Amino acid sequence: EISVLSDSINEMSDSLETALLDLQQKNKKLQDDIEQEKTIDRLRQVFISGISHELKTPIAIIQGYSEGLKVFLETDPETAVKYCDTIISETERMNSLVMKLLDIIKYESGEYKLLYEEFDLNELIESWFERNAEILKEKGITAVNEIERGILCEGDRFILSTVVNN
């Protein structure tokens, strides 16, 4: 009877050890899940902050050019047309930005693939200067694009454009 009792205690001990190991593994997984959830929450906060920052600039540009358009509409139609073109360009850029922000959500979830293309770095920078010319002028900032034409880059043009804008 003592031998049977001993075997039963050994089996119970082995079973308890297995259950404890399983519990420890599940506890570790739960801790990892909690950490991942905290990381996702931090990314959401960064994402919302990024959205507000990224949309603030085009909205300011649209506002400035709209106000300028009012002034030049009757006195300088050529400048008014340029202002309209800038407003259209910025709204297209904002739409593209929103679409890219949605792509970032996909990227964070592992679904987004970068769009690699070859482009002229000078053109990318010149585009930024054109979009921000009025703001630079208002703030008295003189800036010069010293990047030579024909320097080709490969990457996601929109994401790099966003980096330059930041």
Summary?
With 166 residues, the chain is mainly alpha-helical. 80% of the residues lie in helices and 5% in strands. The longest helix is centred in the N-terminal third of the chain and has 74 residues.
What does this structure look like?
The chain has helices spanning 2-75, 77-108, 121-138, 157-165; strands spanning 117-120, 152-155. With 166 residues, it is mostly helical. A two-stranded antiparallel ribbon has the order 1-2. α1 runs antiparallel to α2 (77-108). The mean pLDDT is 86.
Please write out the topology:
Layout: H1 2-75, H2 77-108, E1 117-120, H3 121-138, E2 152-155, H4 157-165
Helix pairs in contact: 1-2
Q: Care to count the β-strands?
A: 2
Q: Classify the oligomer.
A: single chain
How many H/I helices? 4
Radius of gyration: 29 Å
Task: Estimate the global geometry from the Cα principal axes.
Answer: elongated
Helix content: over 70%
* Strand line-up across the major sheet: 1-2
Question: How far is it from the N-terminal to the C-terminal residue, by CA?
Answer: 79 Å
Structural class: mainly alpha
- Rounded mean pLDDT is 86
